[in-house]
Amino acid sequence: MPNQIKYQELHKEYPRYFWQTGKDETFTEDMKLFTLQSRNSTYALAVLEDGFICHVYYGKKIEDNDLSYLLRLDENPWTLKTNERDKGTFMDTLPFEYPCHGTGDYREPCLMINDRDGMSSCEIKYVSHRIYAGKPAIEGMPATFAGEGEASTLELLCKDEPSGLEVTLVYTVFHELDVIARSVRLKNASPDDINIKRVLSACVDFDTDKFDLITLNGSWARERVMERSRLHHGKQGIDSVRGESSHQNNPFFALVSNNTGEDTGEAYGFNFVYSGNFFAQAEVTQHKKTRAVMGINHFDFNWLLEPSETFSAPEVIMVYSSEGIGNMSRTFHDLYRNHLIRGEYKNKRRPVLINNWEATYFSFDTDKLISIARQASKLGIEMLVMDDGWFGRRDSDNSSLGDWFVYEKKIKGGLKYLVNEVNKLGMKFGIWFEPEMVSPDSELFREHPEWAIQIKGRYMSQSRGQYVLDYSNKEVRDHIYGMMKKILDSANIEYIKWDMNRQLTEAGSSSLPKNRQRELWHRYVLGVYDVMERLTSDYPHILLENCSGGGARFDPAMLYYSPQIWCSDDTDAIERLKIQHGTSICYPVSAMGAHVSDCPNHTVGRTTSFKTRGHVAMAGTFGYELDVTKIPEADRNSIPVQIEEFNEFNHLSREGDQYRIGNVFEDNMWDAWMFVSKDKSEALFTFVQVLGRPNYRSRRIKLKGLNEKTLYKNTESGEIHSGSALMNGGINISLHGDFSSKIIHFTAERF
Ligand code: DGJ
Questions:
Q1: Looking at ligand 1, which residue's alpha carbon is closest to its atom 1?
Q2: What domains appear along the chain, each with residue ranges and CATH number?
Q3: pLDDT tens figures, 532-541
Q4: CA separation for the pair 725, 730 (Å, rounded)
Q5: DSSP class of residue 248?
Q6: For a substitution probing ligand 1, which of 387, 399, 553, 568 has the most ligand atoms within 8 Å of its CB?
Q7: What is the pLDDT of residues 566-593, one digit of tens each?
Q8: Bridge partners, residue 305, by sequence
Q9: Whose C-alpha lies nearest to ligand 1, atom 11?
Q10: Which of 395, 504, 559, 667 is most deeply buried (CB count within 10 A of its CB)?
């Protein structure tokens, strides 16, 4: 048994006063205790003699063997074993690992069913357990992975005896990271159908309500804006009912102590490895405890589980930090970079690309693209990405989605010719698809109107002039993937941007039977995963970048398929400070699609310097999104310099630790961050002045993440100071003007 998960059988004796009999007596409890240890955190749960699975502790590492005293069974006068008449109270106050609906726990449940008789109560009890090295995959679903020496897994098999539903709770503890991954498997072990009304993936019953809730919310072009509020009685949370993880709420939340800051205090982060409807909630209960839950949204959800069938719920990643929000973020970053993102580009510098979307929108042809590529190649740009508009008869967003064949009027000479010409310039070639969509004006829709998601007899709502394809239907997926394959096999394509520009309405499928219609939301997501899995296995060398009208599907599940995701359609450097800060709360900079675009910015109309745009995009994957043949010459001339900087420092942002120094959500005047190499031998500091103000002296900014005792050279000024001076005293930054920026490279002396 790996020592990261300890299993003990305990025989406990409790002295207690029984108020019904008026006597001092003792009672005993045979209990199983499971303690999960990561490097700095402990998670403990217990199985009581009745089979109930209780939460014992989650937090800073405790080396003690037995934490079961924290359950305070001796104080609880309603323990089921000793007092059947008060089971209701027992259920409503015990901290549960996986609460069910209908037997007395009135807090938010994780599981609700309709059994053979249409009854919804259920109550799971422990049956057996398994502990093993490594981490299991989740069938048909993205999930974090770990080798046998990197993680240990506990599986608790439980059962709701009356309905025959088996529930397996899965916990993986990562040894070196303070991460616990949780998921749930259901199996219908009864001879009758069971309808699953809700199946969440994780619950933590905390013993306190002294938390702030942090969420990442927004809209199109304003994704992942961080919000923080104090918990109060009742339920508060976020969700998506839109069919994708969404611009509006990211499937992430953190519970942090009221005094937690960027570098100090406790933080518990929860992130859902899922791209569809989700539910995330913190509930402060009557006794001022907090129940945190996360999983697939039960809203408009039903899953028919026939006898012997299984259902796997996606995983929730839980991160614990006792050193503030910054440390929580770095744990997420390390986990995702090493145990989620796959493929050739996992640890590789990504090619510097130029995307033609903001340069041309739909108005381009082969000649225009080649002229952009010709100019770009001279400046050191390594890849041309042809965005929306190359297929069907697509001259605007009014047509052709679903017609994945080349629009010869624009791509004169064909795709192979264009790609060859770009390759001849020494550049790679990338292409845009929106594989989940169909335009009403398309050959595909005319041939197969039933392939669009719709409800017969109801108006089919368009959004951006398009419908969503029914990805729950394998025939649809096969057809679309077949068309994509033809394109990908026809030329040397080395990058794909997979876009998704609308959310679901009239959620009905022509291929699902009546009693499975409510499965569409989840089956749709599984269908998307299926095609992404085929794509990434058939084309392992292609760099896949996800996108959804900007960053509406910036979630960990998408990172499993694509090492980078387009962060937002808002490319303004100042707006991006917030968007990228919010995104970095749980996602690594190596995954954040960020480009230098033209000014005035197309979304907000702001003009910022080319330099600042470059510095902000360097805190992302870096690339260009402008007409390089038309921008001012001075800007064009600075591209090679920017690319040189990107090449010199990209290893730091891609593989190093990120330290947020400024917080534009709190102070709109400036922002700053650092990337520090893992061995702390070098660091890149970036400072952006949002608005200039009259300063008597320069601003003193404290660095972070360095070795106190190491001497570091400021390669700009040549000054040498200890890490201690730089972090406690700071450096003096003097910048003039709005939207100005600078980067400084620090290298360790005599390292
Ligand atoms: C939305 C994306 O976010 C943009 O970058 C661009 O690809 C457009 N779609 C194209 O329609």
A1: 549
A2: 2-339 (2.70.98.60), 353-434+475-501+516-655 (3.20.20.70), 670-749 (2.60.40.1180)
A3: 999 999 999 9
A4: 6
A5: S
A6: 387
A7: 999 999 999 999 999 999 999 999 999 9
A8: 194
A9: 388
A10: 559
